Amino acid sequence: xFVLAGAQARLAAAVLVLVAGAPGCxxxxxxxxxxxxQVAQGKPPPGEPAESPSPAxxxxxxxxxxxxxxxxxxxxxxPDSLDKRVAAVVAAPVAxxxxxxxxxxxxxxxxxxxxxxELHEDGRxxxxxxxxxxxxxxxxxDEPLPDEPERVVxxxxxxxxxxxxxxxxxxxxxxxxxxxxxxxxxxxxxRARKNGELHTVVFExxxxxxxxxxxxxxx
Length: 219
Known about the structure:
- By secondary structure, this protein is of the alpha+beta class.
- Helix content is 30%, strand content 23%.
- The chain has two domains: 2-51, no CATH class; 73-217, Mago nashi protein (2-Layer Sandwich), CATH 3.30.1560.
- It has helices at residues 2-21, 34-40, 55-62, 84-91, 155-167, 209-217; strands at 73-77, 98-106, 115-120, 124-129, 151-152, 175-179, 186-194, 197-204.
- The chain has an eight-stranded mixed sheet with strand order 1-6-8-7-2-3-4-5, sandwiched between helices.
């Protein structure tokens, strides 16, 4: 009887030891090995390569690193080195009685959408579009302005043009404005006179009420 009782006691003690050592019975969470912990944290197990980020994720991570003002518009003095097409427009002579010269030049190697106009002080507007013929894309305009005006605006419109230029600080603009980090789009070259002095500003992919107004003036 005593032998049996001793055996039962030893068996009970062994069960208690096993139960005490089982996970979940210590009051503490079970410990994971290194591989399990890495997977739980979203990391690949040891020995497996990390998953590459998607293009969208990569773009979101790098956006703004190349330039802290990506998407914003920056102003600066008219640079000495300009796109060849822009330089050709800037260098073109402007008659003394021209109040405003406007040119739209695509940045892409396709000049078919290019157009320009000149507003004279007497209200005459002369305009021309690129012919779209397969010629040198670095030549912004392949046709001269016509001999006859497209239309004529009255003195009230002329006064409005002068007022809008002043209100938007055109004559105080340093000369060049660009939307940072953009591709494609177009250049808008505006040249206007005040007190006989011709002021030139090149806008690169810029959106503004002034440019909207001048664009609509062509039509």
